[in-house]
Amino acid sequence: MRSLVTAALLAGAVTVLPTAPAHAAGSVVKVTGSQGDWQLRVDGSPYVVKGVTWGPSPADAGRLLPDVKSLGANTIRTWGTDATSRQLFDAASANGIKVVAGFWLQPGGGPGSGGCTDYVTDTAYKNTMLAEFSRWVEAYRDHPAVLMWNVGNESVLGLQNCYGGAELENQRNAYTAFVNDVAKAVHRIDANHPVTSTDAWVGAWPYYKRNSPDLDLYSVNSYKEVCGVRQAWEQGGYTKPYLITETGPAGEWEVPNDANGVPLEPGDQAKADGYTNAWNCVKGHQGVALGATVFHYGTEYDFGGHWFNLTPAGERRSMYYAVKRAYGGNTAGDNLPPTVSVPSVPDAGAVPAGRELTVRAPATDPEGDALAYEVLWGSKYVDGGGGLVSAPSTHLGGGTLKVTAPAKTGVWKLYVKVKDGRGNVGVEQRSVRVVPPPVAGTDVALNRPTTASTFQNDGYGGCPCTPQLATDGRNDTRWASSWADPQWLQVDLGSVRQLKHAQLVWEGAYGKAYTIRVSDDGRNWRTAYATSTGDGGIDDFDITASGRYVRLELTQRGTGYGYSLFHFGVYA
């Protein structure tokens, strides 16, 4: 196999690796029927995909797949296939579950996708992937868990992040032509399982139609717009059926912004309805839509996990039961999750950093189970962090809680999680804009002339980040210096003022060591404050000084970046 790849590299062409198919010890899966009247058949019997995408480790498959089965699901979908897949396949087979086995190609969609492969010229990458995929098809073609092979995930769309204009078109055509090379190679090895390819929007299908004739069916990930897939298929004049490989409620990219300017996440009930509606639309396109694997059966409890997981941290949500009802699982005796109100926070657009606040999120439980509350903060819209951090809170009764606001400014997500002690959880959330604590007195630096040693002007991170942005009174603009020590920022107050307080609001790149000096003439300076132990966030301190000019002298950075300051306030 390696010698064939090497020869292909030397020849500058993609090699389709020939391997004679063997008799399948596992199931024989076929797409049968004709235009608009297709079926997926497994060992001759009709098979409608009722599935979930699979997130846990293969090591957890034996423990968790019985629960997947209890949903009424018959299929799971993966994004990659390798040596660890055998454990997952074995557990799936033991539970009567089939697998849409994925193969990852750059630049795929979702976290960790990475890479900007040149599908026109990079024969080495294509041959490496072709050999890798062929290896695992040969390894697992006889496994009874395999339902079909799925080549790539959202790459036709993802290529727009790498290329533009005519070159983007060239790459999309080359990518889908390569997908066809993979499909032909897979069919040579395994004649008993279909091959498909997933993309993120139906706009990818014309490329498959033109360049990938050897695919047995198309696949698409579609959330809010899933009910429009049927119309797109009918208008596109397609001659192959399709599978929905991800679906569910509206995603972060499909919802309007809330009052704090961040995506308005649907609540638990709206998410549950999203799964129900999606499945109804899939069922409604009989003879063409062959089923769906809804997103997502995972145990992660982070930003994305909260948005989509049916079982975050292993706890069942209302969406879990919506899928169970849709798939016809046995619901007799089910104990259902609590229903939680959207948290209310006084003045959620201006919550002082580090201050205690009152959160109201009353909850009820269908069975009257005793409820336990937890509050979590998420910093996705502050620093890009996906994790959720549990915050100490006091439950005052009736869903009223006391919790301390984060110390860092920005728009945070506040989550209230309510457990019923029976393995169920209800979660609701909202955004909260955390602002610097109010300071008594007048900010005499506000909108005054401000200069600095350097500022970033490279177009990254929202820059140019000029000195004046540190004194403009806004918490979403910043001064950012070059990546070197020392630096300085200076404000002209216009006249000598008596000063009593200073407030510095840092972005992630903060000052560990700095000094504040004052001057009446801009030449002779007096020290008003100094520290060598700054830790970022908000620095709030009293000073006793007077002067017309105030200078922040920065001598040691707290990170490898420059200094980045949202706010430099000086109060009289």
UniProtKB/TrEMBL annotation:
Pfam family, one: Glyco_hydro_2_C
Record's keyword terms, sorted: Glycosidase, Hydrolase, Signal
GO molecular function list: beta-mannosidase activity
Keyword Signal in annotation: yes
GO biological process: carbohydrate metabolic process; glycoprotein catabolic process
SUPFAM superfamilies assigned to the protein according to its UniProt record, in alphabetical order: (Trans)glycosidases (SSF51445), Galactose-binding domain-like (SSF49785)
Residue stretches making up the F5/8 type C domain: 434-572
Leader sequence residues: 1-24
Gene3D superfamilies reported for this sequence: Galactose-binding domain-like, Glycosidases
PANTHER family: BETA-MANNOSIDASE
Protein name: F5/8 type C domain-containing protein
Organism: Streptomyces subrutilus
